[in-house]
Amino acid sequence: VQLQASGGGLVQAGGSLRLSCAVSGSGFSINDVEWYRQAPGKSRELVGAITSGGITNYADSVKGRFTISRDNAKNTVYLQMNSLNREDTAVYYCAADWRKIVDGTWTVGRQWGQGTLVTVSS
Asked: How far is residue 1 from each of residues 7, 53, 112, measured CA to CA in Å?
């Protein structure tokens, strides 16, 4: 399982960005996919998550501004970020919980993608 996050960049406050998390590999199924972020000098925090069935939940700090969606046909999860402010500046990571059958036994794990930097300017 490999995850590739993309879509970060520089945006002005009040603007929008859409991040993508492309999942690749074979022989596995993906359960929950989560987005995290880590701002300079701060610990990593959960931004939100989406289940395999499309149920989402979000951190209070981004509710109403961020939306997570998934396109199972493209094996891609998106993080649409609107009304960005300087506090949203961070490196954003996606992580996927996966499972696959190995030697007849279900095996589970978590794979992280590399981060993508989002910088919001005032």
From this structure: 20, 20, 9
The Cα-based distances of 121 to 38, 64, 83 in angstroms read: 17, 21, 12
Q: Tell me the mean pLDDT in the region 60-75.
A: 95
Given a contact cutoff of 8 angstroms between Cβ atoms, the answer to whether 93 and 112 are in contact is: yes
Instruction: Provide the 8-state DSSP code for 113.
Output: P
Q: State residue 49's pLDDT score.
A: 98
Judged by phi (left if over 0) then psi (alpha if -120 to 50, else beta), residue 47 lies in alpha
- β-bridge partners, 33: 50, 96
Q: Decide if 8 contacts 20 (C-beta within 8 A).
A: no
> The dihedral of CA 112, 60, 9, 90: what is its sign?
negative
Which residues make Cβ contacts (< 8 Å) with residue 100, sequence separation at least 6? 27, 28, 29, 106, 107
